[in-house]
Amino acid sequence: MRLVLLGPPGAGKGTQARILAEAMALAHVATGDLFRLHQARGTVLGKEAASYMERGELVPNRVTIAMLLERIQEPDCAKGFLLDGFPRNLEQARALDDALAKRGWVIDGAVYMKVPEEKLVRRLSERLVCSQCQAAYHTESAPPTVEGRCDKCGGKLYQRKDDSPDAVRRRLQVYMEQTYPLLDYYRTLGKLLEVNGEPPIEEVTQEMKRVLDRVGLASAKGRGVK
Length: 226
Ligand code: AMP
Fold this sequence. Notes:
By secondary structure, this protein is α/β, with parallel strands linked by helices. It has nine helices and eight strands.
């Protein structure tokens, strides 16, 4: 099964993608995480991506598409994958569909997490991310057990540069201009599924599972997602 997770920055895509990918035995592929990994390793790609990311702009399609298509050819993606943060514009969506078609694959569903804008700005300004495993925390609604440390791996938590007010404003603008039209793209293909991303994490996960189940896409570890 191959799924896409859509939604504005701060909708909780990364958090839900980690939970769902684990429950459904899919590879979790997040382009933002891949770029941050390149940055941490100091690669040429990481350096090129950093200047765009800090300003809240999209990294050019040329590099992003190549990186993603390479990633989904890795063995762990053969069992299916959940894309988080890709595609972010129509050119990326079409490039993905073309590449999948060559292997006889398709995107089975695109899950859209809907969250109102005022909530997004607050969530992003309160967000802390693990420098090792990229898990996200929120100082108000989902704080770590030990301040400054990741519950899952003990890694140091930090605030992303692109969670600054200026970058957040730009990211939301870019989302509306370039990514929002993808809802129509997947709707036209009959693949769009919508969930309310506002409630607490566990409730959103349950709704996602229900929505996927309803259209027969919840084949988690062979027994349906529980
Ligand atoms: P994210 O972790 O998904 O919020 O992504 C962080 C940043 O990485 C974005 O604001 C972009 O600068 C860059 N990025 C991630 N995914 C993409 C993509 N599919 N296309 C272009 N830029 C991306």
